[in-house]
Amino acid sequence: MRTTPFPARNPYDDACIHLAAEAIRSGNLYGIGGTYTRRFEESFAELYGAQFAIATSSGTAAIHTALAALDPSPGSEVITAPITDAGTIVPILYQGCVPVFADVDEHLGMDPASVESLITERTVAIIVVHLFGNASDVRQLRAIADRHQVPLLEDCSQAHVTPLDGKLLGRYGHIGMFSLQQSKHMTTGDGGVVITDDPELAERMSLFRDKGWARSGFGPRSYPILGLNYRMTELQAAVGIPQIDRVKSVVARRRSLALRIDSYLDQAVGVRKFTPLPGCEASYWCYPFFVEQWPAETFSAALKAEGIPTMPGYIGEPIYSCMAALRDRRTFSDSSYPLSEPVHDTVTYALGLCPSAEAALQRLVVFWLHEGMTDADADDVGKAIAKVAANLEPVGAEVAP
Ligand SMILES: *Cc1c(COP(=O)(O)O)cnc(C)c1O
């Protein structure tokens, strides 16, 4: 199908280069009290119609900052998603909390019924993940969170400016959290940001990412809360600012390419397009699809022979199985803390925990779509998927994902 490589993505335009150079020439790249970091935060808050935006050094840092702001007691439980980046999970463990995994629905969002069934008196937060630029059903999840008086935090790392019923993901929960890592819709190489309307949470998050330091000029210091150094630098902020203006068009372009590939899958047998949650205008961090008559590895290998690189199974197994910290309870030395409390002895992270997520990963193939691709590039991907589906011998029994 294809002998030339796909165009490489370059998310940084001349405006990024200009602002980065300007930041360097200013002689200061330190974000606190800086000009670019403040501008980035103000523009990002405006983009989301949020009262506060606080920039951090990574998405993982953003999630840790949000969770820490809730001041959870050690041993508290956090309900989250089985298919995600480790950056969603690591902050939970470092904050002394226990991740509890809700299974996914047919759109790979967190299943609201599963989430509600896992709420206990120890639940301190729900961290919802919006996978691949598609929404988890935060309409229902927010109602469940409110009913049980549990804060809802939204990991929007893969779902920048993504509307659900016309309201952006990140605005349904008490806090929205974003990664600005290189692969994300908007990027500063590494970086992150949190948004909220709650002044108390904003204050705590602002302190936490700055070592807990309540700054008041030179002189004696005051650290009212325990925190980390998760500050964004001026250089990151400068690179990020111009992208705030064009992230909507980045997302629109990805969406249109994805829908173009979808049209080929509609006619193919044995493959199934990924369907976003109804009401969600998905932003396609990547292009996911399901293969029903072959293991994902087999289909992906055949696509590679057609010149289309893909990733079978995304992270492979659910995150509870990928991380030794969970699977083997190998956390801090041999303590297994915070998974060691007697009350958590019944918590397991063995395969079988989230059957729908595990089954979906076996049938999932991911193409790294990006906004720099042409319609012809998308057509090649769609045609190659259809060609492989039409010609590849089915393997094993048909399994519905
Ligand atoms: C990228 C990502 C993270 C972590 O972000 P980093 O910036 O790499 O720390 C967390 N959650 C999800 C869903 C992600 O895709």
Structure notes:
The protein has 401 residues and is of the alpha/beta class. It has helices at residues 14-25, 36-48, 59-69, 86-94, 112-117, 138-148, 199-208, 234-267, 296-305, 319-322, 324-327, 355-363, 375-391; strands at residues 52-56, 77-80, 98-101, 123-129, 152-155, 163-164, 167-168, 175-179, 192-196, 271-273, 287-291, 311-312, 364-367. The strands form three sheets. Strands 1-9-8-5-4-2-3 form a seven-stranded mixed beta sheet, sandwiched between helices. A four-stranded antiparallel beta sheet has the order 10-11-13-12. Helix 2 runs parallel beside helix 8 (234-267) and helix 3 (59-69) crosses helix 7 (199-208). The chain is globular, with a radius of gyration of 22 Å. Bound molecules: pyridoxal-5'-phosphate. Pyridoxal-5'-phosphate (PLP) binds at residues 58-60, 84-85, 87-88, 129, 155, 157-158, 179, 181, 190, 192.
